[in-house]
Design a protein that fits this description.
Blueprint: E1 10-11, E2 34-37, E3 42-45, E4 50-52, E5 59-60, E6 74-77, E7 82-85, E8 89-92, E9 99-100, E10 114-117, E11 122-125, E12 129-132, E13 139-140, E14 154-157, E15 162-165, E16 169-172, E17 179-181, E18 194-197, E19 202-205, E20 209-212, E21 219-223, E22 232-237, E23 242-245, E24 249-252, E25 258-260, E26 272-274, E27 279-282, E28 288-290, E29 303-304, H1 306-315, H2 329-333, E30 363-365, E31 376-381, E32 386-391, E33 396-397, E34 401-402
Antiparallel strand pairs: 1-32, 2-3, 2-25, 3-4, 5-6, 6-7, 7-8, 9-10, 10-11, 11-12, 13-14, 14-15, 15-16, 17-18, 18-19, 19-20, 21-22, 22-23, 23-24, 26-27, 27-28, 28-34, 29-33, 30-31, 31-32
């Protein structure tokens, strides 16, 4: 396929959320260690509660949605725009191309439902405001930058180190491979600008301090763990369940495939089983995928228009199964081999070559045709990590999937 984009494109590899450990699920004033098990929807709070809420590709958006001082368990389901806050509310806001950005945008002490649409730079806060700030190359980093109790709309541009806070300031700090962090280092209720450099374990807080903590591949986290009003620095090591809080503690919590309920929100831990029949099973989601990009489960590496792709997937008999289908957006992005907190930490094509050999560094159809542009459907690019609509009659690569 020759790439064709209609001006609506979101770099899925840039889906970023603030690395935070500040979720206080029991209201004691301390950030809690808590994990989410994607395959079962299990939320588990250390020395606290365990509940099941959401499914394997929902985005976790915990926050204090009712202002009672306790973090609520919540999810965002992009393909329908559903926000579900456990025991509190359900609402529809946003779409599959939006990044959920739940913050306190009006300073009333409650978390507001909000989205950032990278393709256009749109920020939408339900019932409060909408504006345009930033664009497709930016990471969204809303936080309270001036200590007034209201979270500010802000972006970070990794390629240049630019930080821009709407109506407040702009400056440069960091380089292209840095992850932005926003701790309250001194407890003044105003975040400090900082970066984590995964390649060396460097933490640097602008004008304050710098130190080394962690190794490459660790997920950086900040939050008030001990209740003293200032942020601690911590890492989570995916795949091992290791949590380390600098100068305080270190322990293992959770199992392989678990991830923090806050922090690295779009990091997808990958663990696969080769079924030795041309398929692989995702051990996190339970989905069974056609493995070989040139095999029968991928139309022998050929390209199909969208309608033919849907019919092909539903009609094939492959590896002893006949209940295949085209993946939806969340399913297909789930196999991207990219730490999405860092848009520069990837190789092309964006998939594990051991389990998905011969995958094309190109675009693959999803089953989603919800575009406002007539006669189009959405593809996902395994070369650029983008989601965009294309004409349904354009030949594009395909990959079959089965539900667990």
């Amino acid at each position: 396929m020759r790439r064709w984009v209609m001006g609506l494109s979101i770099l899925l590899g840039l889906g970023f959320g603030l690395v935070s450990l500040a979720a206080d699920f029991n209201g004691d004033g301390c950030g809690d260690i808590a994990s989410f098990r994607a395959r079962t929807g299990l939320w588990s709070v250390r020395q606290g509660t365990r509940v099941y809420f959401g499914d394997y590709l929902d985005e976790r958006v915990p926050g204090d949605y009712n202002g009672d001082g306790t973090t609520d368990i919540a999810i965002f389901r992009g393909d329908s725009g559903l926000w579900a806050v456990r025991g509190v509310t359900r609402a529809y806001f946003g779409s599959v191309v939006d990044e959920p950005r739940a913050r306190d945008y009006n300073g009333d002490g409650t978390t507001d439902i909000g989205i950032f649409r990278r393709s256009t730079g749109l920020w939408g806060v339900r019932g409060i405001t909408r504006c345009y700030f930033g664009g497709s190359a930016n990471l969204s980093v809303p936080e309270d930058y001036n200590g007034d109790g209201t979270d500010d709309i802000a972006i970070f541009l990794p390629g240049t180190g630019l930080w821009a806070v709407r109506g407040i300031t702009r400056f440069y700090y960091g380089r292209s491979d840095d992850l932005p962090i926003l701790p309250d280092y001194n407890g003044d209720e105003e975040c400090e600008i900082g970066i984590f450099r995964s390649s060396s374990g460097l933490w640097a807080i602008a004008g304050v301090t710098r130190f080394y903590f962690g190794v490459e591949g660790d997920c950086p986290l900040t939050g008030d763990i001990d209740g003293d009003g200032s942020s601690e620095f911590a890492i989570f090591r995916p795949g091992q369940g290791l949590w380390r809080v600098r100068n305080i503690t270190s322990y293992y919590y959770g199992s392989k495939g678990d991830m923090p309920t806050l922090g690295c929100p779009n990091y997808s831990p990958h663990s696969y089983t080769d079924n030795e029949d041309g398929t692989v099973t995702d051990n996190v989601t339970g989905l069974m995928w056609a493995a070989d990009g040139s095999g029968d489960g991928c139309a022998s590496g050929g390209e199909l228009d969208w309608s033919s792709a849907i019919s092909w997937a539903e009609g094939i008999s492959f590896a002893g199964y006949s209940d295949w289908h085209m993946p939806d957006v969340r399913q297909l992005t789930g196999i991207m081999e990219i730490w999405r907190a860092n848009p520069y930490a990837y190789t092309i094509p964006l998939v594990n070559p051991t389990y998905f050999p011969n995958t094309k560094a190109d675009v693959y159809w999803t089953n989603f045709d919800g575009s406002t542009i007539p006669d189009t459907a959405f593809f996902i690019g395994f070369d650029m990590g983008d989601l965009a609509p294309a004409p349904k009659n354009m030949p594009t690569y395909v990959r079959g999937v089965r539900n667990p």
